[in-house]
Amino acid sequence: MFRLSKAAEYAIRGVLYLSGKEDTVKPTGIEEIATAQGVPPAYLAKLFQTLGKKGFVRSVRGHDGGFVLTKTPSEISFLDIIEAVEGPIFLNDCLINEGYCANDSVCPVHDVWGEAQKRLLGFFSSCNFKELSESGLKKRKKLKSKS
Amino acid sequence: MFRLSKAAEYAIRGVLYLSGKEDTVKPTGIEEIATAQGVPPAYLAKLFQTLGKKGFVRSVRGHDGGFVLTKTPSEISFLDIIEAVEGPIFLNDCLINEGYCANDSVCPVHDVWGEAQKRLLGFFSSCNFKELSESGLKKRKKLKSKS
DNA sequence: TTATTCAGGACATAAAAGGTCTTTTATATC
DNA sequence: GATATAAAAGACCTTTTATGTCCTGAATAA
Ligand code: SF4
Ligand code: SF4
């Protein structure tokens, strides 16, 4: 169906929420993040668990625990988070490695997938969470001034 | 998982095969197409059935029947065939229509999906089957000259 | 020590992908 | 007209992926 997973959507919005916090030291509980973004808490917890393993967030257990970003928002790209939760993106199996499909040396379709993937990944890796967060503030301000 | 479906891959390779034929009048049987491309015949038949409904191929039943392209290869885009077999592409539900997600007026993520989708669709619609077929011939020639 | 909060993993459900098969209908040829 | 051929239509099946939930255990601050 060629659609982003909820996993990616939720994870990104979670990281976005953390990116919007001024206090970058105090951990934020998963419950707070989930409620703020309106996503299933238990699922988000799973996702943040893997974000932790991949090193994008640090987790603090126990009282007043939660999650903190380990990098500044400008250093985290969209692609980072997408790939962290859904694994590396391959538009088609034959892009995994040369020779995966025996046909790829003569197949013109292969090149199209390759180019499409290159462009898509390039775009996603060009989006960072600092920009994203700022653009969110801007949108909110614009909406307010209208009403 | 963000991957093209086999359906799209098979359909595209089927159309590509037809695009490579000089004789544009005599129908080509699904069995021939499937064997030439190494894809499951029954499945490909289903796919061509829907390609027929969408008007990209014309079908002839009975003895010496099969499929013929209804347009010249240069008029058929990658996107045409992909969308014909998997339905319209939406990277995320909120792109289906404005207001699908109540949040989209303030959500910065929305815009990223939108831009990514715009670029992807733009690229796919810029690829036509005449170019594709020619690039296939070129690749084959190059490979031959090497061996 | 106790309440809190994440980690890890098992489990559940539903949807989609990928594919087969059978029956019916249209067509060309003998 | 009979017959062989080939697509149309739709039922059916299996496997994989997506999207969660829940429980138990471990860390930690108050
Ligand atoms: S696109 Fe070409 S190379 Fe890639 S899997 Fe399909 S046939 Fe093989
Ligand atoms: S990206 Fe933003 S607008 Fe789109 S569904 Fe997610 S929250 Fe809603």
Bound molecules: iron/sulfur cluster
Taken in chain order, the helices and strands of chain A follow as: HHHEEHHH
What is the count of helical runs of chain A? 6
Tell me the count of domains of chain A: 1
Strand content of chain A: 5-15%
Largest interface: A-B, 42 and 42 residues
What is the CATH topology assignment of chain A? Arc Repressor Mutant, subunit A
Descriptive account of the structure:
The structure is a homodimer of 147-residue chains. Chain A has 147 residues and is mainly alpha-helical. Chain A has one domain: Arc Repressor Mutant, subunit A (Orthogonal Bundle), CATH 1.10.10.10. Chain A has 6 helices and 2 strands; from the N terminus they run αααββααα. Chain A has a two-stranded antiparallel ribbon. In chain A, a hairpin with a 5-residue loop joins strand 1 (57-60) and strand 2 (66-69). In chain A, helix 1 (6-19) crosses helix 6. The first copy, chain A, is globular and about 60 Å long. The N and C termini of chain A lie far apart (37 Å). The structure holds iron/sulfur cluster (2 copies). The structure holds a DNA duplex (30 and 30 nucleotides).
Secondary structure: elements and pairs:
The structure is a homodimer of 147-residue chains.
Chain A: H1 6-19, H2 30-37, H3 41-53, E1 57-60, E2 66-69, H4 78-86, H5 108-126, H6 129-146
Antiparallel strand pairs in A: 1-2
The complex binds iron/sulfur cluster (2 copies).
Chain A binds a DNA duplex (30 and 30 nucleotides) through helix 3.
